[in-house]
Specification:
This protein is mainly alpha-helical. The chain folds into two domains: about 1-195, Up-down Bundle (Growth Hormone, Chain: A), CATH 1.20.1250; about 200-373, Growth Hormone, Chain: A. It is built from 17 helices and no strands. Helix 3 runs antiparallel to helix 15, helix 5 (about 95-125) crosses helix 14 (about 300-310) and helix 14 (about 300-310) runs antiparallel to helix 15 (about 315-340). The longest helix is centred in the first third of the chain and has 30 residues, at about 95-125. The relative contact order is 0.15.
Length: about 375
């Protein structure tokens, strides 16, 4: 058991270091593209293409991992590619080359996420899966705070110096070294063997679950929409809220992981309750936007843990499928929520969020024979 805990913590440090790299870079890439001559419309378009590429690669990566068992190869390659793409930004001389590298970084994340989640899920099933994903999610979010802080300091002191992206990329390369050590101590008897791809699992409770948690994202206020809204008149206040949300996510990942281990899948009902409450930040009090931290924590702990527990030894395919559907719904929801908020249709947004969350909860409630697991 001690070795299992050690591996979980090592995976957490790997993700934390990688988060320092890519979250730090992502916090300055829009400004950097503008510095190189890209306009705002293109930056917004690039963000959408990048996220879609990431989610699409997650599905493909999950299928490849299932068929050929390349869990470690895909995971290590993904983290290495993250470091390389950010490092190369230091010599990008045009917005086009920087854009290609930005998409490459998103592809790297899509490549590594499903197989990494499988490796973590397999080791977590030896103990408490909720706690494992909670610990992993908390360490992951520490990197999401440290990375942007480092980027902001270097940017303030040296502007867009090549040192900015070289420094950030170094953390990803360190994460690869830790990952190689983790592979060396990972128990051989819990690794996933190559298997024929089967879509049968998609006809079971997994699809019901994935639809149920994807529905609320159609009306979910994302962190970027919230921070943009808060920071319209005071950008510093927006930054303060961003950091506060990250801290809430860290604490929430641990608490929600423990909740899942105690009450099982019923813990996901917290998600359906929280999502519509976030919309109150538009017309009651902006403090309601802090609840986004709880949603992010749910995504990192309970949501991923349930996928692993429903996967029935088909984790690679299951995680890829989950990330694809959830990602597509989030992408559509981001546009819809942004459009409604931008045009002052706040009450309509609140109604949409309530309806989609209720629908998601009702769909999940049909999984009676699995909820008590």
């Amino acid at each position: 058991m001690k070795r299992f805990i050690t591996i979980i913590i090592l995976f957490g440090f790997v993700s934390m270091l990688a988060d320092i790299t890519y979250e730090g870079a992502r916090s300055v890439i829009p400004q950097y593209l503008g510095y190189l001559g890209a306009d705002l419309a293109f930056v917004g378009f690039l963000g959408g293409i990048g996220e879609f590429s990431s989610y699409l690669l997650r599905f493909a990566s999950g299928m490849v991992a299932s068929r050929y068992g390349l869990l470690w190869g895909l995971t290590i390659s993904g983290y290495a590619l993250t470091g390389l793409s950010i490092a190369l930004l230091s010599i990008a001389s045009s917005w086009l080359s920087a854009s290609i590298l930005t998409i490459t970084e998103r592809v790297a994340k899509g490549l590594r996420t499903p197989p990494r989640d499988v490796l973590l899920s397999k080791i977590a099933q030896q103990g408490k899966s909720g706690r494992a994903f909670g610990i992993h999610g908390a360490l992951d979010q520490i990197g999401a705070i440290v990375g942007p802080s480092i980027a902001a300091y270097v940017l303030y002191m040296h502007n867009f110096s090549p040192m900015l992206f070289l420094l950030l990329s170094s953390f990803a390369f360190v994460s690869v070294i830790i990952l190689l050590y983790t592979r060396a101590i990972y128990p051989k008897d819990v690794e996933v063997a190559p298997r024929k791809i089967s879509l049968g699992i998609l006809r079971g409770p997994l699809t019901t679950y994935v639809i149920s948690v994807s529905m609320p994202t159609i009306g979910l206020v994302s962190i970027f929409i919230a921070i943009y809204w808060i920071g319209r008149e005071d950008p510093v206040l927006g930054t303060i809220y961003f950091i506060a949300i990250q801290f809430i996510q860290i604490l929430g990942s641990l608490a929600l992981g423990e909740l899942y281990d105690k009450v099982g899948m019923k813990a996901i009902y917290v998600y359906y309750l929280i999502v519509p409450l976030i919309t109150l930040g538009f017309f009651v009090n902006q403090l309601f936007f802090l609840l986004i931290g709880i949603v992010l924590a749910l995504e990192e702990s309970i949501q991923r843990a349930i996928v692993g527990d429903l996967a029935k030894d088909k984790e690679a395919m299951a995680y890829g499928y989950y990330h694809l559907i959830y990602g597509l719904a989030s992408t559509a929801g981001g546009y819809i929520v942004g459009y409604l908020a931008q045009n002052g249709l706040i009450m309509q947004l609140a109604i949409l969020s309530s309806i989609t969350s209720l629908a998601g909860a009702l769909i999940f409630s049909t999984m009676r024979r699995y909820k008590s697991s």
